[in-house]
Amino acid sequence: MSKLFVKGNEAIARGALDAGCSCYFGYPITPQNEIPEFMSKALPETGGQFVQAESEIAAANMLLGAGACGIRAMTSSSSPGISLKQEAISYMAGSDLPGVIVNISRGGPGLGDIGPSQGDYFQAVKGGGHGDYRQLVLAPGTVQEAYDLTMLAFDLAFAYRNPVMILGDAIIGQMMEPIRLIRREAQDREESESWRLEGYAGRKPRVIKSLRLAEGTLGKHNEHLQQKYLTARRECRHEEFMTDDAELIVVAFGSIGRIAKSTIRRLRQKGYRVGLLRPITLFPFPSQALQDLAEKGKRFLTIEHNMGQMVEDVRLALCGLAPCGFYGHLPGNLPTPDDFEGSILKEFASEA
Amino acid sequence: MSKLFVKGNEAIARGALDAGCSCYFGYPITPQNEIPEFMSKALPETGGQFVQAESEIAAANMLLGAGACGIRAMTSSSSPGISLKQEAISYMAGSDLPGVIVNISRGGPGLGDIGPSQGDYFQAVKGGGHGDYRQLVLAPGTVQEAYDLTMLAFDLAFAYRNPVMILGDAIIGQMMEPIRLIRREAQDREESESWRLEGYAGRKPRVIKSLRLAEGTLGKHNEHLQQKYLTARRECRHEEFMTDDAELIVVAFGSIGRIAKSTIRRLRQKGYRVGLLRPITLFPFPSQALQDLAEKGKRFLTIEHNMGQMVEDVRLALCGLAPCGFYGHLPGNLPTPDDFEGSILKEFASEA
Amino acid sequence: MSRVIFREERCKGCLLCTLVCPTDNIEQSQRTNKQGYRIVQISNGDMSACKGCGFCAQICPDEALTVYRSKADRTSEDLAEEEHV
Amino acid sequence: MSRVIFREERCKGCLLCTLVCPTDNIEQSQRTNKQGYRIVQISNGDMSACKGCGFCAQICPDEALTVYRSKADRTSEDLAEEEHV
Amino acid sequence: MSIYQDAIIAGFGGQGVMLMGTLLAVSAMESDLEVTYIPVYGPEMRGGTANCTVVISDEEIGSPIIRRPLTLIAMNRPSLEKFQPLVRDNGVVLINSSLVEPDLTDNGRIRAYHVPVNDIAVELGNLRLANMVALGAYVRITGIIALEVVIKSLSEVIPERYHHLLAHNTRALEAGAAEIEHKYPSGG
Amino acid sequence: MSIYQDAIIAGFGGQGVMLMGTLLAVSAMESDLEVTYIPVYGPEMRGGTANCTVVISDEEIGSPIIRRPLTLIAMNRPSLEKFQPLVRDNGVVLINSSLVEPDLTDNGRIRAYHVPVNDIAVELGNLRLANMVALGAYVRITGIIALEVVIKSLSEVIPERYHHLLAHNTRALEAGAAEIEHKYPSGG
Amino acid sequence: MQEIQAYKSPGILADIPTHFCPGCHHGIVHKLLATCLEEKELAEKSICVAAIGCGAFIYNYVLVDSLEAPHGRAPAVATGVKRSRPDSFVFVYQGDGDLASIGLAEIMHAANRGERITVIYVNNTVYGMTGGQMAPTTMVGQKTTTTPGGRKPELDGFPLQMTEIMSRLRGVHFAARVAVNNIKNLKKARKALLRAFEVQKLGSGFGFVEFLASCPTNWRMTPVEANERVAGEMIPYFPLGIFKDQAAEEG
Amino acid sequence: MQEIQAYKSPGILADIPTHFCPGCHHGIVHKLLATCLEEKELAEKSICVAAIGCGAFIYNYVLVDSLEAPHGRAPAVATGVKRSRPDSFVFVYQGDGDLASIGLAEIMHAANRGERITVIYVNNTVYGMTGGQMAPTTMVGQKTTTTPGGRKPELDGFPLQMTEIMSRLRGVHFAARVAVNNIKNLKKARKALLRAFEVQKLGSGFGFVEFLASCPTNWRMTPVEANERVAGEMIPYFPLGIFKDQAAEEG
Ligand SMILES: Cc1ncc(C[n+]2csc(CCOP(=O)(O)OP(=O)(O)O)c2C)c(N)n1
Ligand SMILES: Cc1ncc(C[n+]2csc(CCOP(=O)(O)OP(=O)(O)O)c2C)c(N)n1
Ligand code: SF4
Ligand code: SF4
Ligand code: SF4
Ligand code: SF4
Ligand code: SF4
Ligand code: SF4
Ligand SMILES: [Mg+2]
Ligand SMILES: [Mg+2]
To answer: Domain B237-349 classified CATH 3.40.50.1000?
Structure first.
């Protein structure tokens, strides 16, 4: 099939459509507006529903409603708007509801700017909402991956009956690259049959809720959720680049992962044995891959476009097996391969 | 001065008043309703303002407005309501604004229940909102501490121009205990003079905002915030109980810290050398204290009323110096000293 | 004669039924049920006044009442009244 | 004679001033300023028609115009008009 | 040995069990003891039963939540049914025998005190005093607090607008204590 | 050595620089090269200047963001002032000499190409074709893409309702290329 | 002797005790709702969106497919439901705190979009579930746990009249205010609810029925006193009636 | 020759180029606002609460103490400000997306509480800052980037008429809709704004002024065409006038 040259945002929208997404609920915010804009045209054409919600809160709650009907649906926003969705996401997790949430994040805190940043890692991965829940988090590094991972997100959301977040940034959202589309079979209408709401005709009424007052029930639900998250570990995905002979492994995700790759290519040319591990799933986190590398005696440097968030997960994964340095590129400043060279070289020097 | 027998919630309200809080903005939610209820009576009597906001979002944004005026103000809520405040908290952090937010948290995710739980640790400590910010987090373990730490929260909020959260749970909020009040001098009206809004008469107009579009400005602000958080490390507070000769240190915060103390007392009677480290500030986290104990060769067990959140900070603090076990009491189930005995004994057995 | 059956364990003693009964056929009793509520009873233990209109059952928030209306009580006036109130 | 002063670098060429000028005294020019906007100018370079009413300056979203009204132009009719529109 | 006592107090919503708990707790505070009190709250209270837990000690109190209490005041039948099995062996159970049949008591395992607190209260002129009768009895049985301190503490927990009722409450506390002295001369 | 080229394309909002970028990028894609394109967006665009960055390579592209580009197309003066200092030594700078005075060029450090794209476009009958003139010139200078591929790609980036203008655009691309051949016979 | 049952419990109403306080009107509204669903044969295709408040447990009593919405967001959740399953019958059950305070934007926008849903709005002038705080509907002077001196309009504003606000939005095709404090009003309430259901069946727009209801517990009244307050204090400020019936007006 | 300056730039208006697109009415509203603040001598005691939208940068142009509010929440932020500093003059500058969509609950509740603040509401029927998506005020049939086929009332609802909604809330003491598309309307706008300021000075209640405004960029029109659309399409649906002036009505 021929290639299409599209923005990351459009790739996400197309990925959703090709994964069978039939409802989109959103509210405008830069730098993700191409998603609702694309959907507002494409969905009605395929019999789906596009709703411009009155707010991000409403959009997230519409997603909850659609999820309860067992429908593949999506919402998207950017950092401040994602903060507003936290209550609904917590409810979805608490009610075992699927749904895909896209965060094309921007610089924060507050209104910040509309440039790229990875300041929302903690919010996405540790749970910005209340309670002990997790969402699966996928972090594309290319426009093709934005498309592919969006399709995957829907499958995971329904496989685990859990919210799944696509965490991109302004680079992923605004960048254009060629992509190849995947043609999918018509969507499996059965995937939600055993639990979705549609009127009780022919069976017993169903209730979908997160309130669990009776003694022991909330505890049991929390146990069930933990079990789900343990199972989800098998979904771990990451990319390794030139790690085999590397002394130093740079750990970086999303757009920073790909930019760091440029730096690494350049440093390789200069003879430095440096490699890259790019987590693709941020939750579950590819801890095992890191441990495996640590056991081979590698050293680590985490690079993020924030003041240090994923590095905690890296350190927890390494668990004392190996140290991990950190270089945080300031949110608000655009990252380029040049920016990472110094810190990588410094890390080399520090122990070599 | 004589003692007062009050609920934790009332202690918080009184602490706020005695710290000079003159505006309260809130929205009802169990189990913290005694705070707004007390304030609705007490504040108008002292010339302050009580506003029952239309929502938690509105309440948090009123707090932002009051903070910008350099006024000591507070909002309070419980888990789902706190999720809704995340955007405003991020804005406050991004605008260097003081304010006190109380979370008398309950079981989650979603609507969960109204019982105690510590499921909101991540949200409070890692930042549930978007962007690279932190709030200072204080976790009382007694009603007296609820009162004292609320007063401290206001001082810290203004010293650092940053939101400060009191993280309690349904136990802290609903429990009654005797407390001693502290009489304070009248509030220092000068603390905000150099930055607050009040009309520009006699000086240049001031702008308080978090939007930073000009190149480099958002990055600089993020650096400034990190500097602030580093400085705040000196505010670390924790309690140690029988750690000197202990082999095993239980790390637990808030109500779980005090309940664990009962277990430890009981185990001491049985001859087990177990001690307690109870973090009082959750951010900044008392990492140094943990490291000091680790260097003395102690082992650690974190106990939380959730599925494992603070334990990550403990492990990051210990940084491979010592391992740390974990026992998570299921949110939704009430914790008692009996519940912790087994896991402490198991931890003892595991390596002894 | 129409009949009213109480499910005592369901009654919460709110007395709303007594407000709507056109014949004052229900009154508070001295008894409390297992839940501690002071329940209602047929006034003076005399069912004969009951018209079987079912108003008490309609309003009872707790479905504590069942009314069996005898055909005899089903006068055309009652029906007319029902339609017009 | 009243005078209109343009701050060309501020003009965005929106032409709103031309809409409100009662004497069609302003028109689009062929010049672009540094920002790339096609700016306005006095129609035919002739200032004499200007009444000095200041409407152009009032509506200009970009404060690109300053109007100096000569006392001579300040007729009572103008004033009356101003009051009543 | 050090002083330690804990109690669950339970009954119908309207029986004033929360007031019993706070009065007991304030009395402990006034006796210079450490004390915590924790109620149930929220929709669970609605319509159904209410209960609270009081822990009294001369040492810092760790847990305010007690799964297996040393003592129980059961103001009605559902409360007894729910909490009696949790009471520790040989623990004290004070039963409102006006509402609860004696045969429900787990006599072998716990120490039961049957006091017809409703009847005594009605005798005193007001059914609503039943809670004070029960507390008077409890205090006398356990001896954890002096009755006089409880009586003195009344004015701290009863809202000012009801202070004309202080004397009635005092009488009820005393009546409860007296009933124990009379019925269980060896007890307490 | 492998193929690699990057470019910043900058100008006024209305000059069609985004279209230049996408056309260049799609042409690269059609030439079976790897390519990324990234625009500026949001309020920064409002009123002021617009710019985008294109990276073309035969290898996987790491960074779509380029701080120090190899080439620059400056459609107006502010763009030249802003980006020229960032161009790498000996880099290519294509300047819209219809709007920018030649003396602003950093001649010693970079390789400057002065093309009066506005004037050429006006000659072709439409000022709006200036962007295509510039792109034609750029492609000829750098040789990164064949002009024919660019012309073939036009129909992919120009919305269907404007396809009657394809011929005009083609002519503009060609005119730009021709200008380079004519003016800088050794260049490109 | 021949007998008929004068009032039949609807089959979809669970035969279990409710958690409602004695005399709480929520219980009556639940019954009525269940009756009307059955009467219109809608139960099997219903999806109930429960809001947060004392009515949150409706799924325990009215046995249809049900979903819990976060506080205030039920109209948005219902929008997601109805857009996903346009053939289902979607109704929302909200309290006055939920709908008129935290959820004001959601209800107004769902109404304005003309979502084909039916909203049952139970106005008891107070936050019931959380223990009696001021609601947007609390009457002037009414004492609540957060207006210890009574609601003061200069500080707290005036009680919101939601049916009036709703009926002015063009997406709303039916809006009525009813009460269940006596048999006469109960019958009118039934008619209004049935009519609102029809509007959804017609697929024309949004249906809204406000129920004035008592909350004896938080009004600190006996059930009988509370029932009387509905007529004595609420109805004068919140007048009953059908405020809008688009189809009827047009046809 | 003697001369006077026919229009004086208000001193608190910064003498710097704005970021607004050519012909954007925000610029005119800014000027008017600054003029009125000066005329009433309110600038020195003003606190401006800026909302998120193209007007968010007002603090760069109208030089008074200023505060940025999260999108939609400016009325809540202003409530916090005014309650903290009752002596200051507090005004809010919001767009139609900000006020009528995400912030609908906040504006209505602040209005209903009768907060002593003045809200300047700039309705340009579109989300300007984010690039022209549908707003709650978008006209039926209007094409936007999220209504590529034009706004469809059956799916998207009808445009909200906020001044009408506001004027019916009892806490609102002044509500008007004005335009700045010609000199006549500009003068009326000035009068309305001055009156709204007075209401706050009187301390009686909430003041609301809706400005109909153009957004040439997102309407895909020239500034002149856009200016004409205000009169041709907007005013017929959003009629101008003073909808409420409590003090005037009472006195
Ligand atoms: C986000 C959030 N805020 C607050 C609450 C607490 N809460 C539960 S129900 C309720 C209000 C109930 O009042 P109303 O809607 O009037 O219903 P009622 O109980 O009176 O029927 C509130 C504030 C919550 N669950 N979630
Ligand atoms: C929570 C949140 N959601 C969305 C946005 C993105 N956003 C910025 S301005 C705006 C709307 C602007 O429209 P309007 O209020 O009509 O103002 P205008 O620009 O048209 O004057 C939006 C949605 C945001 N900043 N924050
Ligand atoms: S059926 Fe009618 S008359 Fe008989 S008890 Fe009930 S209400 Fe009264
Ligand atoms: S209405 Fe029902 S619950 Fe109330 S008193 Fe009558 S029978 Fe009992
Ligand atoms: S001052 Fe009046 S007449 Fe003169 S140019 Fe301006 S608008 Fe025209
Ligand atoms: S109104 Fe101002 S900006 Fe617009 S054309 Fe006239 S002078 Fe220029
Ligand atoms: S609190 Fe009020 S609304 Fe809730 S169940 Fe009780 S009476 Fe009904
Ligand atoms: S986008 Fe619209 S509202 Fe924003 S500045 Fe431009 S014209 Fe004005
Ligand atoms: Mg209510
Ligand atoms: Mg707008």
So the answer is: no
